[in-house]
């Protein structure tokens, strides 16, 4: 057991994986279950406030990613991760008693602060030769956490809402405590140069990835729109309880986890990232359109499982494609910028989903999200992506 926390054990990658698992467990529980269900049913908040709170969480998460990436190139991982998780702990504690809309939104924003560092740290540990495979493993850890969080939280919210809040706070406190075991040394091999120079080095990369921007923003926007409405959609349109809804999440999450590693290896072997992206996004769109018609429960389980497989095809290929535009010499800032661009959609999505549901129905949100994913799939099917240069080549900049 001591070896798990050995700082010399591959840079503490096992420890970072455990912390990532715990952090994403809480994120999934909070964003997909606790905020929408506890906020609406226990605190009496409307869906537009719930959606705004989820947006506030992702807003602080996204806004800090670029800054945190820059800080990780200069300060120790332990300092950044530990400080962030302490703020997140304060946020989840406040969230359970915040029955005033502005306070509830503030607590969600505070929670988002601590989410940014650990993900970027894990991305910086990925090697080039097996990037898609390792991204598949990383996303497996991430998805186990973010998928099990809502399932466990839904079961508790059905029977003991206060216990759900205590569990979220306890797991956050555990991840914060474990971060004390992270090495206090800065990452080796990272060149410390002024922020302006690093931004200049990335300018060429960003100009060459214009074709990726629609996917970076619209896919996270489409997914974000679903977060505040899925529990209500399951209850009102599918006529299932929170516990039964957990079975649907389990089908989607379980097949996503099972598919990530094989899809990652297949993407490494085949190399056609565009085909994986187009097929995955178009399949995702079609399945959401069917789900918006409120089919019977057994069909929902099949659709959820198919959604998981489609998602597992997209994730490793997508991040491997992004990584080909990333300068190796300053990955912290690079992943921070990419994560910030992707986060624009997740900032807009929950608030948009809450507003659409308030003006129409939850099914309208599912349908709108399906259209967005379909547009992304068609775009990458018809628009040829320019091959990226090898990740090891870095422009000198000016």
List keywords for this structure.
single chain; 398 residues; 15 helices; globular; 0% strand; mainly alpha; disordered C terminus
Write the layout of secondary structure elements.
Layout: H1 13-42, H2 47-72, H3 77-95, H4 101-113, H5 116-124, H6 131-159, H7 161-178, H8 195-208, H9 213-226, H10 230-236, H11 242-270, H12 273-291, H13 297-323, H14 331-359, H15 362-382
Helix pairs in contact: 1-2, 1-5, 1-6, 1-7, 2-4, 2-5, 2-14, 3-4, 3-5, 3-7, 5-14, 6-7, 6-11, 6-13, 9-14, 9-15, 11-13, 12-13, 12-15, 14-15
Structural summary, described in words:
With 398 residues, this protein is mostly helical. The protein has helices at 13-42, 47-72, 77-95, 101-113, 116-124, 131-159, 161-178, 195-208, 213-226, 230-236, 242-270, 273-291, 297-323, 331-359, 362-382. The chain is globular and about 45 Å long.
Q: Work out the strand percent.
A: under 5%
| Low-pLDDT runs | 1-9, 188-193, 387-398
**Overall average pLDDT:** 78
Q: Which percent bin holds the helix content?
A: over 70%
| DSSP summary: helix tally | 15
Distance between the termini: 49 Å
**So what's the overall shape?**
globular
Radius of gyration: 20 Å
Largest sheet: none
The secondary structure category is mainly alpha
Q: Could you state the order of secondary-structure elements as H and E?
A: HHHHHHHHHHHHHHH
Tell how many strands the DSSP assignment holds: 0
């Amino acid at each position: 057991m001591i070896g798990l926390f050995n700082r010399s054990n591959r840079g503490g990658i096992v420890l970072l994986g455990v912390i990532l698992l715990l952090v994403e467990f809480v994120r999934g529980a909070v964003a997909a279950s606790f905020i929408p269900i506890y906020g609406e049913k226990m605190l009496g908040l409307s869906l537009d406030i719930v959606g705004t709170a989820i947006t506030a969480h992702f807003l602080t998460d996204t806004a800090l990613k670029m800054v945190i990436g820059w800080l990780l190139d200069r300060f120790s991982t332990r300092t950044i991760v530990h400080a962030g998780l302490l703020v997140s702990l304060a946020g989840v504690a406040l969230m359970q008693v915040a029955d005033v809309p502005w306070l509830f939104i503030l607590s969600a924003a505070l929670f988002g602060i601590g989410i940014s560092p650990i993900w970027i740290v894990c991305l910086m540990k990925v090697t080039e030769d097996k990037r898609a495979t390792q991204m598949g493993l990383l996303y497996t850890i991430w998805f186990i956490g973010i998928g099990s969080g809502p399932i466990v939280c839904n079961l508790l919210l059905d029977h003991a809402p206060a216990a759900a809040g205590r569990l979220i706070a306890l797991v956050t406190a555990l991840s914060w405590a474990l971060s004390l075991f992270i090495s206090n040394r800065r990452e080796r091999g990272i060149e410390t140069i002024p922020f302006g120079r690093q931004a200049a080095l990335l300018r060429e990369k960003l100009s060459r990835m214009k074709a990726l921007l629609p996917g970076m923003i619209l896919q996270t926007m489409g997914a974000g729109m679903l977060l505040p409405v899925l529990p209500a959609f399951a209850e009102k349109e599918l006529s299932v309880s929170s516990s039964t809804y957990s079975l649907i999440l389990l089908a989607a999450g379980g097949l996503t986890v099972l598919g990530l590693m094989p899809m990652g290896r297949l993407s490494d072997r085949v190399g056609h990232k565009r085909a994986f992206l187009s097929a995955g996004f178009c399949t995702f769109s079609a399945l959401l359109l069917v789900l918006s018609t409120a089919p019977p429960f057994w069909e929902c389980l099949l659709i959820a499982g198919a959604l998981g497989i489609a998602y597992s095809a997209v994730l490793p290929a997508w991040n491997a494609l992004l990584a080909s535009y990333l300068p190796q010499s300053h990955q912290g800032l690079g992943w921070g910028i990419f994560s910030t661009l992707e986060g624009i959609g997740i900032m807009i999505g929950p608030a948009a989903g809450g507003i659409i549901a308030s003006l129409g129905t939850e099914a309208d949100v599912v349908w709108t999200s399906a259209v967005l994913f379909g547009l992304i799939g068609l775009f990458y099917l018809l628009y040829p992506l320019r091959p990226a240069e090898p990740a090891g080549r870095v422009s000198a900049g000016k």
